[in-house]
């Protein structure tokens, strides 16, 4: 009977009526597991439904794990040998990613302690695959009870069930924000490689929360530091706007609602020559990386959408020769990329994150507010793994 | 001596002064060819600088060719057999892509007549690679003379030279808009496959030119037709706004300037279940495809950047059961994709194209205005090739 | 001082003299770890030295782990949902792979107990990545002491050090036979998929040991069973030849030597149509898969090398129509593959394994004999993972 | 009616009876085209049947074209810029590949004149895709008439029809030996890169024809030259054995039969460090490359199958330090590769080619003898393109 509740096919007319008949004893039915739809076994036709859990060409990351199982993790294949690496390198970013660190985020108490299982010996990478594992400690199956019944709006529940015939309940699916742990762990390694190789830094900060928009010229990308970003719980490097943003979040939080926003991400000291001219343009790779993060709705770089309101002569990003004899551009409206190839200027991107749909009203009253700002936990560390790969493929010459 | 003019290294202090000393006889030096930088041969270190000219996994397209050579073309590997296909299928879209069809676009007179060299027999595809070739007819080497000297701002000239040590002059490089011919030809094949397989249609139209913004609710995506889009030279399906856009273009055109804009692209009758939950989310693949087009600066889908000004409860895309018993969403703020997987609603994307930088002032006075609207020539046909691949990989089950 | 012993560069003149001066106290220096060569850090030039630990396109396997660390394992990405799967399915093949089960193999006492950490819920796969982990229990660091000093002949020690600057001591590198555990675990999953989908079976048996060559016609590939293969410790389905092989192994084993041999692998009930006509021929994929196993020196299928002694008219594999109206071939000299595509007949392959070079004489007297026959532990289970991928890509239509 | 003859489904009982009723007027039916099977259109289920016509990761080759169309060719993506390149570089190898140059090969009179259409400017590569085209000049449709009716034994006809539903008649399919033209053209480019970068040479010669087996020690791989190989029509560098081989071929040729043989291929001055330890072992990549050539039945390197008759102590490939202080191996039974990684010794491979099945007896009396020795036309040039890719990926560090 429990299964009849949890296994409605995607196009059923009674998905919602099933919800209406919700049995309060539901939570007693195998609470710790995924529910599998009972749709009839598919005919004997081999099905490709690749989970797409591998990223990169040279620096390749495979991630695995769900919230409901023993833990999550990743394998990094292609990390160069002789890189100093320890759990501490990753832990820093994993702690930043972790929700529940302040009143404005989900109050989960995860510890996310990582352990390296292979690929590192005596503190140095050996060139073999690096397996990083983070055990789950806060499974809280009982909070997700209702999700077993109805598809949560704006979530992956419905589409995942339709594609795989599997309900993604209890935060358990791969669409869980916990999936980004593997990105952050591998991103921490990528950041070390980039820093070591070319002094390249990737930084991200919150530049908009709801209707509070940080004016672009308040932040100097040449001097921005991680400390400035980390100086407040909303991760906006301008203290005044940080306060405004926190107030905006608090205002919606108290009524059980959530907000979205924009993250600005910059790449500083990017080597010239990354990317290639046709299908694998650098901006195309960056867009794919950014848009693979949960809850993203848009990507722009350089002049972006605002640039469409300029004429060509206004938009022009003139060249000049700086005091060191280097060819530079004056306005960086090109956003550090021209013709698909980095030109050495700062790459600046803006990524839109929707207000998280797991709200405290309507269907899922038992779920705590999952505040959108959680994206700052992972964006600045999840980009590098992609970036390193572009790095490898385009600049190792 | 000509070569000394054309071979400035990227960080030279005299790139601009070289331009000042431009010898009027320059054009007599091998006018029909690429100039190669005379930088010393690189040391014996094998260099990976992949041109990235192959796209897709199952439906794979390799493109080649420059404006200065004999022609451009592509090979399509992985097209299913038994598909009716002729040059006429591609020619329709190639003609749409071709600039110079109206006063608002570059007045080049290219004919872009394609020829199929392999993979089709008696009007049907055979499952073997399809080679499509489009000869160059309008090389006009003399117009590009000055480009041989100075890097054009906001172009790929400088970055291409830096990466490959090769000047991309005379419209000759792979960054030329002519590169998209291979995308359009293969996209025409992809469109046929999609239409045939699931009735899927991809349509694109101009929704913003400079400061003329088409209100979203003027266009009904359920009934929009290609004829409506093609009914005017600016390819905006609303006649009134089309007139405003044309006027805006004319206003800047007469003073030798250019404008940018936004293209809206929709996917109608998209099967459910495309895309996968982690790195290969459908929106990530679409973003990469769109951002690999020349001159793009931004990508958004569904509620996009505007959605960040909503709260979670406002943004929520509620499910309901329609009259056919299908699970649908009410607002489509999800833009047809949830958790990285298509849900069957219309996928709607908006792509920002910068004002083309090849303007009639400053360095390159001899070049005609290249009006931004040319992007409409290829966007709706270049998406499908990407889409088909997602199709293959995700839905062939 | 220990490091000076263990860090000889590849072209050092004193690799062997270092061995001569071997300090008996060597084992006291960090016995449980990889030794890293002390060669100077490479210049700031990003290096691609991908470890190549990911296999497949749709059914993708990432393996990790060394003998010296906490364990080995793999992630399987792309396994279809709803497949019944438990540790027991893999344990069967892991036990078969495990050395030390009889007197003719390495007497290590590994237990190789696997655990599934993700991707399976309530006994069924969920379509998400499956992480399988096998802890190391028998590290025996002390046995490998001498390897820290000199390169073992015919091993990967020297080349691995040269390429990565890392010594692969103590059985610790990825070249360890323990690396195949990840193949076997994923192969067990692949075998279930194949069996379920099309009744396809992959069986392997020993057809030659040293100079004992099993006559081909003694084995009926149409009726061969796993039980027949498993009926003796040498895994030759013919009892008489099995005895001869065991005697041959015993004869060399008592004098501390080892032997090689040939494994025959067949694919029964292979669907027609796998493979494609040009670069990705089925035999090419199978050859790559087989030759990626440790210690392999050769691959042949169908008539193989022997077929070169026939004339074309003798070799011809004539078609006929069987009683069910199916087009069959009479001789199967084609080995189940024609023009790169499976034709439905039994695919038969023969793979040569060299005598393992870790012998009890010369440099490494403390190492136990590692008998070649160990290859039978993994070949029949490591093929399927490759095969499934071909399956997916070629036959899912 | 013609179509009823040419469109027998794969499992038809009357494929052969159709042949019996062969109408002498058949040739009048669309003689210049592929025949398409008339099997009913497949249901609306998108089908992946990738032709697999793209090879490589960094140096990527896409080939296209059939014998029956306008020509064949390839696109090379990822060739470094500044490489001197002209048609003459490729023509040399294309001429070597071309059949019909001596009495022992197919007497076709193809000229195979190549033309470069893109990617080269003023004699140097520009880093953009190189398109090479070779027009067909000898289509001879009338010779292939009978093939339209019955499947040729040991050919790709039956499997291709089964997989794609398309008959591969008139030498027209991708299984035609003419497909290798694209390999040879791209291989010629690869050979230049390898020679230029590291002095690496790849040479191949015939070491067995039918029962004439060239003793291995007659050829000194350190000094072997292309001139020695080209000194006779059978391409065996030993003149005495060349004569024996030619006699053996003549003996079977006069009775309308054919023979197979073995090609030995060596890689000299191979850099150390190519290949990686697990799935992408160098021998695995080489095996795939070799086995993707038409008519191959086996691959071995180093001690190969013969090595299985040695004990471990006999087989051992001991290290020593040569006069230049380099670590070398004494016997090269490892065949230049240890643990999947090249060690700097000569890589030696042996590839078995079956006797070509297109014989002058039985079904296809009108076809001329296609003598097996034609493989020498392409093997030594088709390997390099694969090798260059390994090169790029493994050694660009």
Automatic annotation (TrEMBL), chains A, B, C, D:
Name of the protein in its database record: Chorismate synthase
UniProt family annotation: Belongs to the chorismate synthase family.
Cofactor comment: Reduced FMN (FMNH(2)).
Pfam short name (any one): Chorismate_synt
Key words of the record: Amino-acid biosynthesis, Aromatic amino acid biosynthesis, Lyase
Keyword Repeat tagged: no
PROSITE patterns: CHORISMATE_SYNTHASE_1, CHORISMATE_SYNTHASE_2
Reaction(s) this enzyme catalyzes, per UniProt: 5-O-(1-carboxyvinyl)-3-phosphoshikimate = chorismate + phosphate
Source organism (scientific name): Glycine soja (Wild soybean)
MF annotations from Gene Ontology: chorismate synthase activity; FMN binding
GO cellular component, one term: cytosol
Example GO biological process: chorismate biosynthetic process
Taxonomic lineage from the root: Eukaryota, Viridiplantae, Streptophyta, Embryophyta, Tracheophyta
The protein's annotated pathway: Metabolic intermediate biosynthesis; chorismate biosynthesis; chorismate from D-erythrose 4-phosphate and phosphoenolpyruvate: step 7/7
Function of the molecule: Catalyzes the last common step of the biosynthesis of aromatic amino acids, produced via the shikimic acid pathway.
